[in-house]
Amino acid sequence: MKIAVVGTGYVGLVTGACFAEVGIDVVCIDIDINKIENLKKGILPIYEPGLEEIVERNVAKHRLHFSTNLAESIQGADCAFIAVGTPPGEDGSADLKYVLGVAAEIGQNMNDYIVVVTKSTVPVTTGEKVKAAVAAELQKRNSDLTFDVASNPEFLKEGAAIEDFLKPDRIVVGVESAKAEETMKKLYKPFTVNGHPIFVMDIPSAEMTKYAANSMLATKISFMNDIANLCEIVGADVNMVRKGIGSDTRIGNKFIYPGIGYGGSCFPKDVKALIKTAQDNNYDLQVLKAVEAVNEKQKSILFDKVMKHYNNQINGLKLAVWGLSFKPKTDDMREAPSVVIIEKLLEQGANVVAYDPVAAEECKKHHLGDRIGYVEDPYEALEGADALLIITEWPEFRNPDMNMIVSKMKSKVIFDGRNIYDSAEMKEAGFTYYCIGIK
After folding, report:
1. DSSP letter at 253?
2. What is the DSSP string of 155-207?
3. Which letter does DSSP use for residue 326 in this model?
4. Among residues 178, 115, 177, which one has the least CA distance to residue 152?
5. pLDDT tens digits for the chain (439 residues)?
6. Which of 27, 87, 297, 437 would bridge 65 by S-S if both were Cys, CB 3.0 to 4.6 A apart?
7. Structure pTM?
8. CA angle 330, 34, 130 (to 5 degrees)
9. Domain boundaries along the sequence of the chain
């Protein structure tokens, strides 16, 4: 089989590389000439564990190709995946101009039957709009070519995307015809023969499944953060509470770790988009509105603890930050709690020095610029620091050299936004230690 993947961002590049990995002929397309030229040289635009190796291997085996020419690339393709961005508008709605622009271009250049697959996260009814966009261009050409539209949402975790794609919990496909279903099942056969389930449904249900899944996970996070804040007030230990409820199989132990809020490219955007979809259909999603409100508040919780400890006087203090990305194993800074926290610290006159294993350059280029210091070693950030803030739970932070920390810092004060240390042990070691959900 041959497929074209339009868009070489996170979703498009992972999708293209992983399909190539199972023997499919893939061409990834992007309008960004520099990005395509870099990909041809093995230079990736994103950090994702294992992705670089898969790209290099499949380019070498001539199964994975990169191009800026959509017209040429979709010729002979069984499927054309649309994996471009759907940035949120000011009202929270997903902006579909890039998706529909690609759909129109496919209609202008297709020369045989093709399945046009939306891989981007898109709201319900997008399938109808994509179909109309392709059909309108075919009509302009007076063409009687046929096509189908399908929805194939992704469920990738940043930092584990390769594993998630190659060994999926489930594959969701929304189709409108038996022919499209046959094509999509053939495409995913290398995965389903290994027992990974495929759920075939109508297109609106597939589109809704993606939003509902991310919104459910965001709900679990906000719920646990709300409970954590109450635990601090009443004197309960949220870590004990988490274990107590997580052992219930109906609840499970995933996504119930308290912290400083969710971020990234998916949860914030998708929660907003689903709320907007409901509003457009005269329905009020009260639970998700609360989820969003709790998350925005939670991003400031660590800053509030800093201000309370220093009696609202942090002007001139040096504060070390460990972790900038919204989660470990990625350089993604979109909607990262670190940006909110650091911005507030800077507003109050603090001097911030940060360390992150992979996200420092991304942070410097697109978020905080030169307003903070960046170092290449976590202990370097601690030199003369009045306090340490742990914002992202990178594995290397879990078992640090405590003697080194003490020798570097001016004061033994730690604000742990991810609860990676034992509160009792830290206090016994002489630290003034603040975390989430423990008084």
Report:
1. S
2. -PPTTSHHHHHHS-S-EEEE-SSHHHHHHHHHHTHHHHTTT--EEEE-HHHHH
3. S
4. 115
5. 999 999 999 999 999 999 999 999 999 999 999 999 999 999 999 999 999 999 999 999 999 999 999 999 999 999 999 999 988 877 888 889 999 999 999 999 999 999 999 999 899 999 999 999 999 999 999 999 999 999 999 999 989 999 999 999 999 999 999 999 999 999 999 998 888 899 999 999 999 999 999 999 999 999 999 999 999 999 999 999 999 999 999 999 999 999 999 999 889 999 999 999 999 999 999 999 999 999 999 999 999 999 999 999 999 999 999 999 999 999 999 999 999 999 999 999 999 999 999 999 999 999 999 999 999 999 999 999 999 999 999 999 999 999 999 999 999 999 999 999 999 999 999 999 999 999 8
6. 27
7. 0.91
8. 75
9. 2-200, 211-297, 299-434
Q: How far apart are CA 292 and CA 270, in angstroms?
A: 11
Question: What is the rounded CA–CA span in Å between residue 157 and residue 11?
Answer: 10
Q: Is 25 left (phi over 0), alpha (psi -120 to 50) or beta?
A: beta
Domain 2-200 has CATH 2.40.50.140: no
Residue 249 exposed, middle or buried by CB count within 10 Å (0-12, 13-18, 19+): exposed
d(CA 64, CA 44): 14
d(CA 262, CA 216): 13
Topology of 299-434 in CATH?
Rossmann fold (3.40.50)
Length of the chain, in residues: 439
One-letter amino acid of 417: G
| Domain pair 2-200 / 299-434, same fold | yes
List Cα–Cα distances, 101 to 67, 96, 118, in angstroms: 17, 8, 12
Please list the active-site residues.
266
